[in-house]
Amino acid sequence: MLKPVSRRSFIKASAATAAAVSLTSFDMQSWMTSASAEEKAAISTIPTTCNGCSSQCGMIAYTKNGRLWKLEGHPDHPRSRGTLCARGHGYATLVYSKDRLEQPMKRMENGEYEPISWEQAYKEIGAKLQSIIKEHGPESVALVQDPRPTGKVYATRFIKALGSPNYYTHHVACNNSRDTGFNHTIGGVPSADIANSSYIMFIGRSYGDGIRPSSMSALAQAKENGAKVVIVDPRKNNTAPFADQWLPIRPGTDLALVLAMSHVLIEKDLYDEGFIEDHATGFEEFKKEVEQYTPEWAEEVTGIDAQTIETIATDMGEAKPKAVIEQSWRGAFGCNYKNSTETGRAVALFNAMLGNIQQEGGYIFGASAGLGDLDPNQFPAPPEPDAVKDGEEDFPLAPRGRGVANIVPLRAKEGKMKAAFYHHSNAALGYGNPEYYKEALNEMDLIVTIDVQMSETALLSHYVLPEPSYMERDDAVDGVGGGTATVVLRQKAVDRVHPNTKPADEIFTELAKASGVGEYFTFTLEDYNKAAVEPLGITMDELREKGSIPLEDKKADIGTVPEFNTPSGKVEFASQTFEDAGFNAVPTWIPPLVEPKNGSYRLTTGKQAIHSHTQTANIPMLMQITKDYDLERLWMNRQEAKKKGIQDGDLVEVSSESASSTVKVKLTDRLHPETVYIPSHYGITSKYLTTAKGVGFSYMEHVPFHFQPMSGCSMIHEVIVDVRKVDA
Ligand SMILES: Nc1nc2c(c(=O)[nH]1)N[C@H]1C(S)=C(S)[C@@H](COP(=O)(O)OP(=O)(O)OC[C@H]3O[C@@H](n4cnc5c(=O)[nH]c(N)nc54)[C@H](O)[C@@H]3O)O[C@H]1N2
Ligand SMILES: Nc1nc2c(c(=O)[nH]1)N[C@H]1C(S)=C(S)[C@@H](COP(=O)(O)OP(=O)(O)OC[C@H]3O[C@@H](n4cnc5c(=O)[nH]c(N)nc54)[C@H](O)[C@@H]3O)O[C@H]1N2
Ligand code: SF4
Ligand SMILES: [Mo]
């Protein structure tokens, strides 16, 4: 067993190990010095994938002397198309971070973390888990993650093997609300064919901030073709340079805008009647409902004038089917508002009225890769658990596979959830109110976090198990759906800097064995990968060589309207499923949950191009950009600030019912006066994340722990704050 060391020496040791191998942390000087020394070394090229965000772009890693040298976007990967974003370059330096986890850690009685051996970790976790299951049943155990390639395979199998249905994903704070709306309406979430569209509306989706390289190139292509681009956002976001028009909408009211635009399409007979006749149900009910939602009514609600609403709807109707409201991700109808799911439904239906589904320039359901799976005769699969996933009865409309992850802390407080695994997830800072998470997770008997650094969630855990970074390991083969489905592989580019870290496939396999369910884990990652590529007629050798392989025989069928994955097989303008769950069959105006009063503001948030969620804040190279440009500031409308005697750069206190934070302010004309806006990546509190800690504030501290009625999502923008200047 390893000798226990204090945290201080743990950090020191980690720095020393990293220094022995290469850099202690990323600093430009030493990077350049070692770079020039290595100039003449041979270069190796490894095609792999980025893990800087959920896009997981393909990339080519170049190494020299076993060290990362340079990165490029993979030309054949549908999300990179030859380009990586700034995060893609910066996040790779995680390999050399001095704040990485290096060995399994256990929380001791005094609350401090001390290193333990893997054997001890597996043994203790396995024993504890078995006793919890024996006493409280397998339903008292949950597993939460961002489903990335290896995790999707191993973690889902692991929780099932334990007999628990309680598998959850991070989408509870991302786009579950949108997907709930889309799934029950058009049977899934297609992607807008931006490059070929002639009229594009973005509602709370900013390609220039929430970056995916191929989306940016598609937009550039559309502009080159002469497309009209409208952005609807309370904030003039960084897609604005591409836009012809910015509609500064009152936050939380996009539903009214889309309902009124639908009203105009119907009133002016500009919808695709043939499509509705052949492929939709419930249109008459919907038509009746939207009669009341006139542009004049919507002007009152949204602050966008009626004439503009009418003109845009008319122009889109005339441009159909090459007109589209982009499907968005998280902004307006992601997990932000009480009405987000309903907005999602309205957006899906507006596109259906344009008849753009599976049409060039419209909404395209992509082809899927169709990966193979392990042969259950050779490698027995765990049976489906008997119980229903916790939360499914409360939120029957929510996406089944993903579940409602915030059920875990809720049930923990009720004394029903006893153990949880967090893999590749910083739920405690990102999914819901951090104070609530802390109290709830402290009630549980066993929390295990698998991460690469000591996140806020790791700090609420009994055991913290370290993975090597994505540059240092192989992952499971993955399929990326789209116009042309693509099979992709993340593979090791450099040797492990910290030899005592273990990849998730090994961790879950060993945890399963220690928990008495090892019979479902008799395969290796390579066995899985071989099975995954087998039906594609591709070998692992080929995939290792190429990294990303487009499957030319798996292309989206453009021009043919599919059968929709809904109960009727059609687009459901009226949904029995919604009615059965206690909601209106057709989309109906729902106001946001809270409204700012004069002098108070709605707190909104969004992505910044150089950071991902909470995971990149500790990357010195990326955080330096934040510091150089003061990117952590709170945005405030200039006129509003004037009323309060606040000047640009002043320190302000932002207070809500839940918390109070202090931050510098950025005054701007690019923001609706009723909102203040904070970039979403800051407010790290873990003292182990030495670069990130203390910069900016965590908006989640202000978000009450609550559930959106339709999808169970976090309703992140349903927060009112006061802002006042902090006296010098
Ligand atoms: N740089 C970067 N890129 C990323 C990520 C990242 O972390 N960093 N993460 C990826 C992931 S997982 C996601 S989900 C996507 C998210 O990408 P987006 O969907 O673009 O999400 P956000 O940046 O959260 O919000 C987009 C815009 O919505 C606006 N908005 C806020 N409230 C409203 C409203 O009521 N109505 C309207 N119309 N607009 C509103 C905000 O001002 C913001 O400009 O980004 C992906 N790409
Ligand atoms: N505060 C805040 N909350 C947010 C958001 C935000 O931007 N800020 N964004 C929202 C959105 S759109 C989404 S999709 C979710 C995202 O929520 P999460 O998926 O939880 O994303 P992160 O907050 O970045 O946390 C990811 C965690 O995974 C760890 N990690 C990184 N690489 C690896 C790896 O290779 N293996 C393992 N085991 N762990 C790894 C990181 O160190 C980090 O602790 O959060 C939502 N909530
Ligand atoms: S969008 Fe950027 S961070 Fe995300 S996977 Fe692609 S290159 Fe990496
Ligand atoms: Mo997300």
Automatic annotation (TrEMBL):
One of its GO terms (molecular function) is 4 iron, 4 sulfur cluster binding. Residues 1-18 form the signal peptide. Its cofactor is [4Fe-4S] cluster; Mo-bis(molybdopterin guanine dinucleotide). Keywords: 4Fe-4S, Iron, Iron-sulfur, Metal-binding, Molybdenum, Oxidoreductase, Signal. The keyword Signal applies. It holds the Pfam family TAT_signal. Residues 43-99 form the 4Fe-4S Mo/W bis-MGD-type domain. InterPro entries: Asp_de-COase-like_dom_sf, MoPterin_dinucl-bd_dom, Mopterin_OxRdtase, Mopterin_OxRdtase_4Fe-4S_dom, MopterinOxRdtase_cofactor_BS, Prok_Mopterin_Oxidored, TAT_signal, TAT_signal_bac_arc. The keyword Signal applies. Belongs to the prokaryotic molybdopterin-containing oxidoreductase family. This is Thiosulfate reductase / polysulfide reductase chain A. It comes from Salipaludibacillus aurantiacus.
